[in-house]
Design goal:
Layout: E1 7-11, H1 15-26, E2 32-36, H2 40-51, E3 62-65, E4 76-79, H3 95-111, E5 117-120, H4 125-136, E6 143-145, H5 149-159, E7 170-171, E8 174-175, E9 183-184, E10 190-191, E11 194-195, H6 196-202, H7 204-207, H8 212-230, H9 235-249, E12 254-263, E13 269-280, E14 283-287, H10 294-313
Helix pairs in contact: 1-9, 3-4, 4-10, 5-8
Length: 321
């Protein structure tokens, strides 16, 4: 008996959406890929272009252009449609523009009969994720944002410039807003299983030059560094989306720092923020609540407060589980 085809839709096939599509195809993550864009011709052209790579990849992915009304049988929808900030490093500056986009889009998707998992990548991603949750009426486990997954990856990459290990041997998370108030949870960063703070304390002669505050700032500004030079970030976030999608479709139960709706975790409610979570076929299987230091907890509260204020500015907060 044939297994059900794993079907993914990408809404918005600009730089981020097309990079994600390319990653999905090269990693053979799904069986069918539906590309949706405000301009159908662009979606069609991207689908055609991507289909021409099938002779060179390990698996076969059926790629097609489509519409929001065709999302009824899709397992995962990746939301990449959005707007870029102009002359500012603050992702919150495009908040109201992005809200208008999703107020039009999400009802059309839900009317198609969609009952799968939403994964948002559009900035400001924490607020967009909350908006999608409110508009869709989905359980909170089925609405995810890429959150600080890309920031956590950037942190690991930066650490590997100072420690002689591969980035995959570094474990740790950036928490809070995917934006200016984010912070690394240094108390939980390990290199080969050994706490980073212990390594720094035990080997000052080797690693005394490593400044945690500077690394945190570099991590926070990494996206803007890319944006100001080429106009967008795409490859890193595209692969982050593919990574999350693979964990959903394969029920991998990977722990990934995603934007999740909090309902008591970290002492926060009615807000969406970057936290480590177990990602499985149901979406967010469980939020991993790290034991933070007093300082880290204050930073978490501050970051969630900033996100919550932005959500409240859209009059979106409701009392629901």
């Amino acid at each position: 008996m044939a297994n059900k085809a794993r079907k993914v839709a990408i809404v918005g096939v600009g730089q981020v959406g097309s990079s994600c599509a390319y990653a999905l195809i090269n990693q053979s993550i799904c069986d069918e890929l539906l590309l949706i864009d405000r301009t159908f011709d662009r979606a069609y052209a991207q689908a055609l272009d991507l289909s021409h790579s099938m002779d060179f990849v390990h698996g076969r992915t059926k790629v097609a252009a489509g519409t929001l009304e065709q999302c009824g049988d899709v397992d995962v929808i990746l939301l990449c449609a959005g707007a870029y900030p102009v002359g500012s490093a603050d992702r919150l500056d495009v908040l109201h523009t992005v809200r208008e986009i999703y107020e039009t889009m999400i009802p059309r998707i839900m009317n198609s009969g969609f009952s799968g998992i939403f994964v948002a990548a559009a900035n400001p991603v924490d607020i967009v994720t909350y908006v999608v949750w409110e508009l869709s009426g989905m359980p909170r486990c089925q609405v995810i944002g890429t959150g600080t997954s890309i920031d956590s990856s950037r942190l690991k990459t930066l650490l590997c410039e100072h420690f002689p290990v591969d980035a995959r041997s570094v474990q740790g998370y950036v928490l809070g807003e995917h934006g200016e108030s984010q912070f690394p949870a240094w108390s939980h960063v390990t290199v080969g299983g050994k706490p980073l703070l212990h390594i720094l304390a035990q080997h000052p002669e080797r690693f005394g030059h490593v400044k945690l505050a500077a690394l945190a700032e570099q991590t926070r500004n990494a996206g803007w560094e890319i944006y100001t030079r080429k106009g967008s970030t795409s490859f890193g976030i595209g692969n982050a989306l593919a990574h999350i999608t693979r964990s959903i479709l394969n029920d991998e139960h990977r722990i990934i720092a995603v934007s999740a709706i909090l309902n008591g975790e970290y002492g926060q409610r009615q807000v969406c923020a970057g936290v480590p979570a177990i990602i499985a076929s149901c979406g967010v299987k469980e939020i991993v609540e790290l034991k933070l230091t007093t300082r880290e907890q204050r930073l978490m509260e501050r970051s969630c407060s900033i996100i919550r204020q932005a959500i409240e500015s859209l009059c979106l907060v409701t009392e629901k589980e």
